[in-house]
């Protein structure tokens, strides 16, 4: 577990007039520190902000404000003020500023582990840099050594976690692609099957249409044949009728010829006359 070492500072005692701006600034910082120790962090920050209005570049006021923001878990604000405190030329003071920044970067990053692991890794890398800076000033700082090793292990854990997530995501993408490809293959197979069925249906329709056309053609041929046959029969019937009429006319003509002959020629053996008697039969009188 990370070792916290959050300290705050007071200005060195210097004689100021009680109504001077410097005295007012010191009074605000002193009151802010008192509230800080009472864990009233909002109230302490208000005092530090009042002091910063009088001296915005003060390393001590920025350091204390950054430490109070850390307590409120506002790590971005904490880091912002702690970085301004590094303007100090006091080596021991800068060492504490690096230390607190190392804690703040760690807390900020580890809090984003689930939401944004890349940001978490970057924050822990910056945390390591801060503890390296502490050890560069004081290589015997045991707390800094411990925190450095602790953050280093946590950073390695996050990197492995990211790699594991990446592998899982890659596998998910691979599985998804396989499912997509299988789905596309299934769709293509279905489309081909449907296309084949459509082709068969088209072919069947074409065959049916062709068969229907042939049937119509055959039917038409049969109708033409029947029509021709009827024409032939009609012709034959007409010819027979004509022949019969001719025959009848011939018989009629024959009768007419016979009658004409009987009228023009002297009949023989039809009437007998008694040529030996010249007398006439007397006429009977009726008066």
Task: Describe the structure in your own words.
The protein has 287 residues and is mostly helical. The protein has a domain at 21-167: Serine Threonine Protein Phosphatase 5, Tetratricopeptide repeat (Alpha Horseshoe), CATH 1.25.40.10. Helix content is 76%, strand content 0%. The protein is built from 7 helices and no strands. It has helices at residues 21-37, 41-54, 59-71, 75-85, 91-110, 117-137, 142-264. Helix 3 packs antiparallel against helix 4 (75-85).
Secondary-structure blueprint:
Blueprint: H1 21-37, H2 41-54, H3 59-71, H4 75-85, H5 91-110, H6 117-137, H7 142-264
Helix pairs in contact: 1-2, 2-3, 3-4, 4-5, 5-6, 6-7
Order of helices and strands: HHHHHHH
Poorly predicted tracts of residues: 12-18, 269-281, 283-287
Look at the structure and give the CATH class of one domain: Mainly Alpha
Number of helices: 7
The main pleated sheet reads as:
none
Structural class, by secondary structure, is: mainly alpha
Q: Tell me, what's the shape?
A: rod-shaped
First-residue to last-residue Cα separation: 192 Å
Instruction: Give the amount of beta strand, in percent.
Output: under 5%
Q: What's the β-strand tally?
A: 0
User: What's the mean pLDDT score?
Assistant: 81
Per CATH, what is the topology of one domain? Answer: Serine Threonine Protein Phosphatase 5, Tetratricopeptide repeat
Alpha-carbon Rg, integer = 68 Å
Task: Spell out the CATH superfamily of one domain.
Answer: Tetratricopeptide repeat domain
- Helix proportion of residues, in percent? over 70%
Looking at the overall shape, the CATH architecture of one domain is: Alpha Horseshoe
């Amino acid at each position: 577990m990370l070792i916290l070492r959050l300290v705050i500072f007071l200005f060195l005692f210097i004689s100021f007039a009680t109504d001077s701006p410097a005295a007012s600034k010191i009074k605000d910082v002193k009151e802010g520190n008192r509230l800080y120790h009472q864990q009233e962090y909002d109230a302490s920050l208000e005092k530090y902000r009042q002091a910063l209005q009088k001296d915005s570049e003060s390393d001590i006021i920025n350091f204390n404000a950054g430490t109070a923001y850390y307590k409120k878990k506002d790590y971005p604000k904490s880091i912002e003020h702690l970085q301004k405190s590094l303007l100090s030329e006091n080596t021991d003071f800068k060492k504490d500023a690096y230390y607190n920044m190392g804690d703040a970067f760690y807390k900020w990053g580890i809090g984003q582990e689930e939401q944004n692991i890349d940001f978490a890794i970057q924050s822990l890398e910056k945390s390591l840099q801060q503890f390296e800076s502490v050890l560069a000033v004081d290589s015997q700082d045991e707390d800094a050594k411990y925190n450095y090793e602790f953050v280093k292990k946590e950073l390695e854990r996050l990197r492995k976690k990211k790699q594991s997530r990446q592998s899982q995501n890659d596998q998910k993408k691979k599985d998804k692609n396989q499912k997509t490809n299988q789905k596309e293959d299934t769709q293509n197979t279905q489309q081909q099957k449907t296309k084949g069925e459509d082709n068969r249906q088209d072919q069947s329709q074409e065959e049916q249409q062709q068969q229907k056309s042939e049937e119509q053609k055959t039917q038409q041929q049969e109708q033409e044949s029947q029509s021709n046959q009827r024409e032939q029969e009609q012709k034959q019937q007409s010819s027979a009728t004509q022949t019969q009429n001719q025959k009848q006319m011939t018989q009629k003509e024959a009768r007419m010829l016979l009658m004409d002959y009987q009228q023009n020629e002297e009949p023989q053996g039809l009437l007998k006359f008694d040529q030996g008697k010249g007398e006439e039969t007397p006429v009977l009188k009726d008066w």
